[in-house]
Amino acid sequence: MPREPRLAKSPPTSPSGQSPQNGPRPGARLAVVAAIACAAQFMVVLDSSIVNVALPSMKEGLGLSAAAQQGGLLTAYLSWRWVLLVNVPIGAGLFAAAFAFLAPPATSGPRARIDVPGAVTVTLAAAAVVYGVSAAPAHGWGSAPVLTALAAGAAAFTAFAAIEARAGDPLVPREVLAVRNIRVGNMLTVLMGVVITTPLFFLSLYLQQVLGESALRTGMSLLPMACVMSAGVFVSQKLIPLAGPRRLVLAGGLVAGAGLVWLAQLPAHSAYALHVLAPTLIVAAGTSLTMMPGIVAATAGVAPRNAGVASGLINVCRQLGAALGLAVLVTAASAVTSHSRAHGPAAVVLGYHAALLAVAAASVGAALLSLFLTGRPEQGDAARS
């Protein structure tokens, strides 16, 4: 039988009619996206590290502390204010790379209106609650400023819920929150905000105020933790299609919890390798396994038009978890220290123990919460997330 002639295959074209050969290849674009995402995650860790390391110098510069603190690399040679500026060029570079390599989403139909009343009320609510919890150690939970701030936050949250129920284009569409994995993923993000931020804060205070280390030595002591945490994001990205978010978060949360329990045994006079380096590396390894899977769980399956909303919700949950968790645990640590029978650094360390054990409980809670995640995202979903 005569063979049918084979038709030459034409190269695929984009919706605009252009061949993809004219633009960046999908593999190269995906590599750039991964690099931008991992660099952004490193900035999250870097923010927490440098601000916490410079915190004593910031307090002294703002008149909040009478004791002069020795500055770190930035605070010693420039000023503590530079810790707030160091990420500006990094962020500008990431913005330029994202603008150059990330394709804009295809839009159809009328653009949604910005929910200004919802954005204003939820921002005021979060700010009021964070302020109320943060002011509790200084003024007391029953004081007028604290109660007023918490009541205002509750009222603002109630107003936000009412506005969202009636808004034509709500700030958080109901279809987003209807997805189970998105709800669970954002709750995981809240807990991981506590787990990532709080140990860095208490370790910075411990190294500087208990052990008397300089800010520069404190930053160098915490650098291995930040590096392992950032490198682990690359590893977890490769493991998501193989193991799924649920197994990774479960394992990572338990590993980080074990490291935090070890870290909670800090003595008043410690050996760095045994009491700081080893447990922080375990904590970093565990948390790095949970960050990216939590993001995938909270964004996979979201409609393209709601991708920005899902990403913004993750950031809000992480920041709220870090702020509220830190405020509550600082209050708890202060209470333990003030009611302790010990004196001096020993009493302060007891407060740190209580706070770090609470963070360990939050990490284990995140691991158990992962059991409510369903399914395993496809490789494409993980890459897009």
Unreliable stretches covering 5 or more consecutive residues: 1-24, 45-72, 378-385
Number of strand elements? 0
Q: Taking Cα atoms only, what radius of gyration do you get, to the nearest Å?
A: 24 Å
The residue-averaged pLDDT reads: 76
Largest sheet: none
Determine the number of helices (DSSP H or I, runs of at least 4 residues). 13
Structure description:
With 385 residues, the protein is an all-alpha fold. Among the domains are: 116-170; 180-384, MFS general substrate transporter like domains (Growth Hormone, Chain: A). Helices cover 72% and strands 0% of the residues. The chain has 13 helices and no strands. α1 packs across α8 (180-210), α1 (26-53) crosses α9 (215-263) and α5 (116-139) runs antiparallel to α6 (144-166). The longest helix is centred in the middle third of the chain and has 49 residues, at 215-263. The chain is globular and about 65 Å long. It starts with 25 loop residues before the first helix and ends with a helix.
Give descriptors for this structure:
mainly alpha; single chain; 385 residues; Growth Hormone, Chain: A
Summarize the structure.
The protein is 72% helix and 0% strand.
